[in-house]
TrEMBL record:
Presence of the UniProt keyword Cell cycle in the record: no
PANTHER family: HEME-BINDING PROTEIN 2 (PTHR11220:SF1), HEME-BINDING PROTEIN-RELATED (PTHR11220)
Gene name of the encoded protein: soul5
A UniProt-annotated Pfam family: SOUL
Compartments, record wording: Cytoplasm
Record note on quaternary structure: Monomer.
Primary localization class, coarse: cytoplasm
Family: Belongs to the HEBP family.
Transmembrane segments: none
Protein's UniProt name: Heme-binding protein 1
């Protein structure tokens, strides 16, 4: 019986490490020791499709008219958590990417109204099973479900304007091929610290609904990015 429990624990540890791991792959995740890992399902000239296992994140919400203002406050709050503002008083290693959940525009006037931005830090592999509770009541642990996502990558700085341009580009590409995706929200995804000046990597994610559309694509044999 003890052996069985030990084996289960070992398998759970392997599962956690398969979701968050060595940042040497993918090569655009190079500033942290651990990154969110994925399987690439297919790639077209306009987007790629990835599969992500379920993971845990620490998250916070901030309301603002502009993403830049919201993310500055949210980032500071999350950084305090990994710096020791948690129930264990433990310093937690920074990982990548940082994601921001953004409500999709449903009205032309929404751009001029405050909206809620939810920023999340990925928890390292060692904390995936049992993350330390935040001491700040504005922070909470998020269980991200197993999912497939449509991804568009772009360089430069992730600002309100550049993020919107690229999310519109992905939205249009998916709509044109009849793809089914969650269109109530999207994710703005960043892999770089503010100190990195060049070769920055950002992404837009839309969550796949039904089966992903990979027409006119290079079909890939599933192989984990690990």
């Amino acid at each position: 019986m003890i052996y069985l429990f030990g084996l289960i624990g070992f398998l759970l540890a392997l599962t956690a490490e398969s979701k968050v791991g060595n940042s040497s792959v993918p090569n655009f995740c190079s500033e942290t020791e651990e990154c969110l890992l994925f399987d690439q399902i297919c790639k077209t000239d306009e987007y790629e499709v990835r599969h992500y296992d379920a993971t845990k994140w620490v998250s916070t919400e901030e309301k603002s008219m502009f993403m830049e203002f919201a993310t500055m406050k949210a980032f500071r709050r999350l950084f305090e958590y990994i710096s020791g503002a948690n129930e264990n008083g433990e310093k937690i290693e920074m990982t990548a990417p940082v994601i921001i959940k953004i409500a999709e525009d449903k009205s032309p006037l929404l751009f001029w109204k405050p909206r809620i931005y939810t920023m999340s830090f990925l928890l390292p592999a060692k904390h995936q099973a049992n993350p330390p509770k935040p001491t700040d009541t504005k922070l909470f642990i998020t269980d991200m479900a197993d999912m497939k996502v449509y991804v568009l990558s772009y360089g430069g700085w992730m600002l309100s304007m550049t993020e919107k341009i690229n999310s519109n580009k992905l939205f249009s590409a998916l709509t044109s091929v009849g793809a089914e995706f969650q269109n109530d929200y999207r994710y703005a995804v960043g892999y770089n610290s503010p100190m990195k000046m060049f070769n920055r990597h950002n992404e837009v994610w839309y969550v796949v609904e039904d089966e992903p559309v990979c027409s006119s694509s290079e079909e890939l044999e599933l192989s984990p990015m690990a």
